[in-house]
Amino acid sequence: MIEEIIKKFASDGETEQPSPWKRQPIIAGNWKMNKTNTEAEALLKELLPLVEDVKDRAVVVCPPATALTLAVKKVGPSANIGVGAQNVHWEESGAYTGELAAAMLKDIGVTYVIVGHSERREYFGDTDETVNKRAKAAVSAGIIPIICVGESLETREANAYKEFVSTQVKKAFDGMGALSAAKCVVAYEPIWAIGTGKTATFEQAQEVCEMIRATLAGLYDAEVADAIRILYGGSVKPDTIDGLMEKPDVDGALVGGASLKAQDFSRIVKFGQKKPEKAKVEKAEKKEISKTD
Ligand code: PGA
Q1: If you measure from the C-alpha of residue 80 to the centroid of ligand 1, how many angstroms do you get, rounded to a whole number?
Q2: Distance, CA 56 to ligand 1 centroid (Å)?
Q3: Pick from 70, 116, 169, 171: CA 20 to 30 A from residue 224's CA?
Q4: 117 in active site
Q5: Residue 79 confidence (pLDDT)
Q6: Does 3.20.20.70 match the CATH number of domain 2-292?
Q7: Which residues contact 268 (CB under 8 A, 6 or more apart)?
Q8: Whose CA is closest to 30, among 250, 260, 209?
């Protein structure tokens, strides 16, 4: 199965996947309804030089629909940086005012799409059923859906969050084949942590991400579940990313507010790296040592 998954990634023209298979982390920035094209251009101009040298991880920027073409152009043919939309419709075309079809996104160079964000579920009538249809349409068009799930504060306090999230996952993947599923990304975003400055603890994030993986293993098998990237989202900041990424089932982050600032987002992208000053000192020390050899 894993060979087939790797082959599928390759045939879709994606970044070469590590062999033996290792889930490549993803840091995605959800700009939500922010940034005119002038502002988007300025943000990308500052951000791209800061992140273009990153390897072993994927960076995704998800600007509003108006800035998608601009972002694709600015990013260029990068192996590590992708552009994502914030929504997609499941029909190929037709009378769906205000919606965008997967083929339209693919056509302009979009490679990811956020599906079922809690704000879309809350304000724009997305349901588990439409999330499922949107995710399937994205995968069929060769776009990676970032499927968002997560519980409200009320559900957490009632201690019903595991069942709630697990049901959301099962419904999102309903009727999807194993190869398509392996290409999906799941983002666990507890609603109480979104835009509130209240990040889930690293343990809380791990607990639910692990449970999501177990749910996926139940739907498919362990190999497929091991291939699917699971992100955490909700007030992720430069000083919380390292702790999150140390958790075995957290494969990246979906970042809202902090993705609007180039410095903050690039620091999140560069998780697990030493502070520049510290790295510089160590490099200088190494040079000294090699001189004396
Ligand atoms: P936040 O948003 O980082 O501002 O909390 C995350 C999201 O909604 O994806």
Answers
A1: 22
A2: 24
A3: 116
A4: yes
A5: 81
A6: yes
A7: 27, 236, 237, 238, 241, 253, 255, 258, 259
A8: 260
Catalytic residue among 89, 117, 119, 151: 117
Task: Let me know how long the chain is.
Answer: 293
Ligand 1 pocket, CB under 6 A:
30, 189, 194-195, 233-236, 254-258
Residue bearing the CA closest to ligand 1, atom 6: 256
pLDDT of residue 16: 47
Task: Please tell me which residue in 89, 119, 151, 189 is annotated as part of the active site.
Answer: 189
CB 213 within 8 A of CB 228: yes
With a cut of 60, say whether residue 241 has pLDDT above it: yes
**Band of pLDDT at residue 293, cut at 50, 70 and 90:** very low
Return the HEC string of 211-240: HHHHHHHHHCCHHHHHHCEEEEECCCCHHH
Q: Is 89 a catalytic residue?
A: no
Distance separating alpha carbons of residues 157 and 155, to the nearest angstrom: 5
| The predicted structure's pLDDT at residue 55 | 86
Q: How many CB atoms lie within 10 A of CB 224?
A: 19
Predicted TM-score (pTM) of the model is: 0.90
Domain boundaries, the chain: 2-292
